[in-house]
Each structure stands twice: as structure tokens, then as C-alpha cells.
Amino acid sequence: MAKISIFFGALLIILGIVAFSGTGSVHPTALIPIYFGLPLVVFGYLAKSSVESRRKLYMHINVTVGLLGFLGAVGSAIHEYGHSRSLGIDVDEKALAAQLIMAALTFIYVNMCVRSFIAARQARKAE
Question: What is the total count of domains within the chain?
């Protein structure tokens, strides 16, 4: 799971860079995926530890970062869409797309982590 954490962290970093440049490098909030991607990469690298307790700790930190990223992206997308519609203006499609992509990436990541945690627990019980 450490390699998957690094992979999804890298995807979030790339998303932040693309979103920021796609908005004309004007809106710093487009960089938010980077703030979630960096911890995934760092703690993913640390989760390569041979010590099981450290590996578990860093992966639990990563899944928490992923869950917070998912909740934040979904909440922000819903808020932005509702706010734009209530004012009768067009939704910023680039920002909404970036938020939904971040939500999808973090949802997939958290789902994979939870399945891995369940499989690991079942493997320990089987021993």
C-alpha cells in the first residue's frame, strides 16, 4: 500500500499543478490537491518501513489524509455549485472538475486502503 500511497499522492500533486496552470495561475486554491498529495507521498515513503507498527501508523495517517481530502473536495464542490446556482451565475467548470477529480482519486484511494486493512486483519486472524 505504500507504493499506492505514493502513486495517488503524485496524482494529486499533478492535479494541483494542472489545475493551477489551467486557471491562469491566478487562483491559489487550485493548489489544494498538492497539500493532500504531499503528505500521501511523504507518509507513503515512510510506510515502507520494515517495522510493522510504523507501517500501520503511517498508513492510517495516509488513509485519514485521503478521507479528509475526499470530504473537503466533495463539500467544496457541492458548496461552489450551490452558491453559483443561487446567485444565477455559471459554475466555474475548471474548478468544479478539479474538485470532482480530487474527490474521485481520494475516494478510490480510501476504498483501496480500507480493503487492504480488512484483508490484513483477516490474514492475522487466520494465523
Answer: 1
Residues 48-99 pLDDT 10s: 988 988 999 999 999 999 999 999 999 999 988 888 888 888 887 888 899 9
Give the count of beta carbons closer than 10 Å to the beta carbon of residue 1.
20
Q: What is the DSSP string of the chain?
A: -HHHHHHHHHHHHHHHHHHHHHTTS--GGGGHHHHHHHHHHHHHHHTT-SSHHHHHHHHHHHHHHHHHHHHHHHHHHHHHHHHHHHHT----HHHHHHHHHHHHHHHHHHHHHHHHHHHHHHHHHH-
Expressed as residue numbers, the domain containing 81 is: 2-126
41: its cell numbers: 507521498
